[in-house]
């Protein structure tokens, strides 16, 4: 823990070194030296910190401390140092370059962690299973002919239509209704939001308590649905093997997790509608139903677009829910595209096919994005 | 802003109108209660199961515990003890902290600087770069994982030219911070730019006239004013990073000293099979911190997430 204390004072020297403030016009050699020396000290400290974090036997509490100070403090120090260095430049360049210092780190990280992988994946998708040979469009041919691939495309379309539709509808309805509660609005909303805090791994465990099946005779069923079936005198069912309904049952899990998000955001949008507008409509004799459809919904369309886009993209990326189910997705017909991609990449070790699925998925989102960008431009124009 | 409304004999806030409550008030209340109950059932199942003794979990459904809640024999905290001691859960919890806090702060800081530049600085390529950044929202992170892993372990080279050295970032915290930063940035920039651009330009202009430079404006003015948006994204990113299994598994590994909570949970599923009482206890431990974070910051959540988007 003492070590942590030491670290937290570490970044101070450069701060003191480059301090003479508001003298932007002149750049004395002493200043240049102090800024650069400060940068060197900071870099050395970070290298030490990252080295420390790699030690397998380090005390865990100290690791947490060093990680927080080095990671969280480091990123601020990075900007601070770069800004200082820009200050050293001649006045002519300074304000031209500064914006790029502000956006630079974001662009670099995105280039390395998202742009480069996209191109890399596109290349791989034209190569064979071990990425050693060019195979042309073979992988794409596979994507659009293989039975379980075709099935996964159909299922994915189902996911990205149904999940956003249901989650946004329930979210909107709930937000509208909760807005008119006198008491308990916060509690009700929190309970709907709660599943957002659960990991997919946790959610799959959670929903086993609903869907689980055991053949009769082995104790009793621990899944709630089969408990109800037995209570009604019916045979218990294997819910997750019931094609094609099992897809719907899995979608329910995602709706359960995401409705809270839609509800919270839409509720904020509803609350931001000026009261006068709604009161005016009511005074003019509009029914509650008309107020909702003719006034509230049109006013919050931009928010609905944002939320729906977010959900469509999430539904497209969904794999965990399908992936962690104990029964095989292939046999049960619950395959989805993101799950196929992962399976071909990691489990069946066919890089080319995995990459081809990823590329198709990526292409499919582009129209959604164009639609969104167009809206963004419109808003920009209004501003 | 329109003029003050003409005096109308109606309370100032919406919902204070007596007519609302009378019209279908009970219907709304019942609908809400039904939805809330439906939504709570799965979580309730986890909570109950995690406190039940093994023989009860295996022989009767968790809901039967509700029928006789005072039967003391069925309740136990043993499951939590087993879960915590079993798979180095304590150390995994610490690792999750060491991973998640920087992986939340770093993208927020980087995105806030970028969002400020996109909103209030003039430079060539501003709009194009912004669209490109937000457009990256659609890249499925699974697509990026393999190339990143290769980059971490082998570097990047074209023929004999090394473009990017082997950084040896595999299994390191720095590696996972950077990866989560990359995946979180598009959403962060999108949300924060929406918020920061909606701040009144008069404040920023008057600060500039007073001689403040961009860094000072950003740090002294924009950051304090953007707390709601920053907190909202912090909640989001923290919950996502904390709950992530895939990235942590691929980069930090499935075993060893550096495993995080979700990986430990997954290992527990593997090693204890159908031990629902342990699994549910472990699941509850892993979701405790995100819940605390959410409920302590939730007053910011809504305001921050929507400021830009809500404005028609």
Q: Give average pLDDT of chain B, whole number.
A: 75
Major sheet details of chain A = none
The fraction of residues in strands of chain B falls at under 5%
Distance between the termini of chain A: 50 Å
Shape of chain B: globular
Mean pLDDT of chain A: 78
- Total number of helices of chain A: 18
N-to-C span of chain B = 15 Å
- Secondary-structure-based class of chain B equals mainly alpha
Radius of gyration of chain A: 28 Å
What is this structure's SSE topology?
The complex is a heterodimer of chains A (383) and B (312).
Chain A lengths: L1 H8 L2 H6 L11 H26 L5 H28 L3 H34 L13 H6 L3 H33 L5 H9 L6 H12 L12 H8 L13 H27 L3 H9 L4 H12 L1 H17 L2 H4 L5 H4 L4 H11 L3 H32 L1
Helix pairs in contact in A: 1-4, 3-4, 4-5, 5-18, 7-11, 7-14, 8-11, 11-14, 12-13, 14-18, 17-18
Chain B lengths: L17 H5 L2 H26 L3 H6 L4 H4 L10 H9 L2 H32 L5 H10 L5 H14 L1 E3 L2 E4 L8 H25 L3 H9 L4 H12 L1 H17 L2 H7 L8 H12 L3 H35 L2
Antiparallel strand pairs in B: 1-2
Helix pairs in contact in B: 2-15, 5-15, 6-9, 6-12, 6-14, 9-12, 9-13, 9-15, 12-15, 14-15
């Amino acid at each position: 823990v003492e070590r942590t204390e030491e670290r937290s004072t570490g970044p101070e020297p450069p701060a003191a070194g480059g301090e003479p403030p508001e003298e932007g016009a002149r750049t004395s050699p002493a200043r240049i030296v102090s800024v650069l020396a400060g940068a060197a000290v900071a870099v050395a400290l970070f290298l030490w910190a990252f080295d420390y974090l790699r030690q397998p036997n380090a005390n865990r509490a100290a690791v947490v401390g060093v990680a927080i100070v080095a990671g969280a403090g480091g990123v601020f120090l990075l900007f601070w140092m770069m800004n200082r260095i820009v200050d050293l430049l001649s006045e002519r360049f300074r304000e031209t370059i500064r914006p790029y210092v502000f956006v630079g780190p974001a662009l670099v990280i995105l280039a390395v962690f998202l742009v480069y992988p996209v191109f890399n994946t596109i290349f791989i998708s034209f190569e064979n299973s071990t990425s050693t040979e060019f195979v042309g469009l073979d992988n794409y041919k596979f994507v659009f002919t293989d039975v379980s691939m075709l099935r996964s495309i159909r299922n994915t379309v189902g996911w990205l239509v149904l999940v956003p539709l249901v989650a946004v509808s329930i979210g909107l309805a709930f937000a509208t209704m909760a807005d008119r509660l006198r008491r308990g609005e916060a509690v009700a909303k929190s309970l709907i939001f709660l599943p957002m805090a659960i990991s997919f791994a946790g959610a799959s465990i959670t929903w086993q308590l609903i869907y689980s099946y055991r053949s009769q005779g082995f104790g009793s069923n621990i899944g709630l649905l089969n408990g109800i079936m037995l209570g009604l005198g019916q045979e218990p069912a294997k819910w997750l093997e019931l094609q094609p309904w099992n897809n719907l049952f899995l979608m329910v899990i995602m709706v359960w997790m995401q409705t809270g998000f839609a509800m919270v955001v839409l509720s904020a949008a509803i609350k931001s509608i000026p009261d006068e507008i709604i009161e005016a409509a009511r005074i003019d004799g509009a029914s509650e139903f008309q107020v909702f459809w003719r006034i509230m919904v049109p006013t919050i369309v931009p928010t609905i677009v944002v939320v729906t886009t977010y959900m469509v993209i999430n539904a497209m990326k969904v794999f965990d829910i399908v992936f962690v189910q104990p029964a095989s997705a292939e046999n049960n017909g619950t395959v989805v595209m993101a799950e196929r991609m992962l399976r071909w990449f990691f489990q069946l070790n066919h890089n080319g096919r995995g990459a081809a699925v990823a590329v198709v998925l990526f292409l499919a989102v582009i129209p959604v994005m164009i639609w969104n960008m167009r809206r963004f431009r419109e808003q920009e124009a209004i501003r | 802003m329109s003029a003050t409304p003409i005096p109308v004999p109606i309370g100032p806030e919406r919902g204070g109108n007596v007519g609302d409550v009378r019209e279908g008030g009970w219907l709304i209340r019942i609908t809400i209660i039904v939805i809330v109950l439906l939504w709570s059932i799965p979580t309730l199942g986890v909570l109950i199961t995690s406190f039940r003794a093994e023989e009860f979990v295996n022989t009767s459904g968790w809901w039967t515990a509700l029928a006789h809640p005072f039967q003391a024999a069925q309740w136990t905290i043993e499951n939590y003890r087993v879960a915590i001691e079993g798979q180095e859960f304590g150390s995994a919890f610490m690792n999750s902290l060491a991973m998640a806090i920087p992986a939340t702060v770093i993208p927020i800081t980087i995105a806030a600087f970028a969002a400020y530049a996109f909103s209030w600085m003039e430079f060539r390529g501003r709009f194009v770069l912004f669209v490109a950044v937000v457009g990256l929202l659609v890249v499925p992170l699974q697509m990026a994982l393999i190339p990143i892993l290769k980059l971490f372990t082998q570097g990047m080279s074209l023929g004999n030219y090394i473009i990017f050295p082997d950084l040896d970032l595999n299994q390191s915290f720095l590696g996972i911070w950077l990866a989560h930063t990359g995946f979180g940035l598009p959403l962060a920039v999108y949300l924060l730019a929406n918020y920061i651009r909606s701040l009144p330009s008069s404040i920023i202009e008057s600060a500039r006239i007073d001689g403040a430079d961009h860094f000072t404006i950003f740090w002294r003015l924009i950051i304090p004013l953007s707390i709601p948006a920053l907190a909202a994204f912090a909640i989001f990113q923290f919950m996502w990073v904390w709950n992530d299994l895939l990235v942590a598994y691929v980069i930090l590994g499935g075993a060893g000293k550096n495993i995080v909570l979700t990986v430990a949970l997954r290992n527990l599923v593997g090693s204890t099979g159908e031990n629902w009482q342990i699994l549910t206890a472990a699941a509850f431990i892993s979701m405790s911190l995100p819940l605390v974070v959410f409920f302590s910051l939730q007053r910011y959540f809504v305001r921050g997430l929507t400021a830009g988007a809500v404005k028609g």
